[in-house]
Amino acid sequence: MRLAFIAYWGIDQGLTQATVLPHLRVLSEDPRVEEIIFFTIERNGFVKSDSSIIKVHHFPVAEQSRIRGFSKFSALRKIYLKLKEFKPDFVLARSSLAGIPAYHYFKKTGTPYLIESFEPHAEYMIDAGEWKKSGFKYGLLKKYERKQMVTAAFLFPVSENYRNYLLAQGIERNRVRVLPCTVDGRQFARNQTEREGIRKKLKIHSSSTVGIYVGKFGGIYKTHEAFTHFMDVLERFDSYHLIVLTPQDSEEVLGYAKTAKFSLDNLSVLSVAINEVPSYLSASDIGFATYKQFASNKYLSPIKLGEYFASGLFVVCSPGVGDDASRLIPERIGVTTDRLDAFEELYRNFSSRSSVNYSVHYRSQKLIKECYNLFLTKV
């Protein structure tokens, strides 16, 4: 079987490394798969080919367009033309945007396709302040999302919440399967040596309670308000420190901390390679995920939460985020920021094994194989 896999991000972007490459490895190891052509959309003219996975041929596509704001659509057209040349037996797309050329190729040839990480991306762009509901791009993507609901062989949303929405829209139950953002539990298993090493490097006392935030600020994520939440939790401890791992400019992040009057003496803002993240999680005790309040948040499956759970962290998360937020207190693995009254009792009785067990049940990479087997047995 010859497959095409379309990713919406560049090869070196965190989401590709964390959520796409593991899926390609699963596919490449299946004896039913002969060959995979893998498309990425590279930003800023940067094009780098990566053929490190067996059976996978990487085809990077650079964004180029004379019309401002439409470079992504020009890249998607290039992918469609390459599909016509490659003639795959089945197409996988990660996100509704990546699914646009898959949809057109289906209409042209009848070749089946699926969309994983199928989410209301158009609504996310509104929530992030990137698009307007009256804008052309929003209307165009909404149109494609509706068409994909009807024509895709399978839809793999990342949350039960969005699966329930799709079923309520009349989508056949056997076409919809939840595939959250999964995590390699071995990679993120707590490492005592790394814990001690990172704490020594950052001059954090071994007895200090360490919080960690991984990711960006702004858009759908809180900025200075996030640091208020960090303070609300960490100032309960006699000795504490906060680690922030972010690709953003450190001065910008420090500005948010200063606005919230967070102690800079208790803060480390770093930008690290993705393979270094597990070490910093091992050095931590509490993982934070602070989102602005949007109705579409319930359809998310944040990769950072999966990594926190796999690392055995206690989680503090904004309410209404994906499936996980509502499970934190019942599973006794964390709290939402509107229920900090429950923090002290839950944290006092918290076992990191509970978070790891949660990760194994809800974020294990075995779910990838289970979902992919649905189409591999039918093509």
What does this structure look like?
40% of the residues lie in helices and 16% in strands. The chain folds into two domains: 2-182 and 364-376, Rossmann fold (3-Layer(aba) Sandwich); 192-362, 3-Layer(aba) Sandwich (Rossmann fold). The termini are close together. It has helices spanning 14-28, 71-86, 99-109, 121-127, 136-151, 160-168, 192-201, 224-234, 250-259, 277-282, 303-310, 328-331, 343-348, 352-362, 366-376; strands at residues 2-7, 35-42, 56-62, 90-94, 113-116, 154-156, 209-214, 240-245, 267-270, 286-289, 314-317, 334-336. The strands form two sheets. Strands 3-2-1-4-5-6 form a six-stranded parallel β-sheet, with helices on both faces. A six-stranded parallel β-sheet has the order 9-8-7-10-11-12, with helices on both faces. With 379 residues, the protein is of the alpha/beta class.
Summarize the structure.
With 379 residues, this protein is α/β, with parallel strands linked by helices. 40% of the residues lie in helices and 16% in strands.
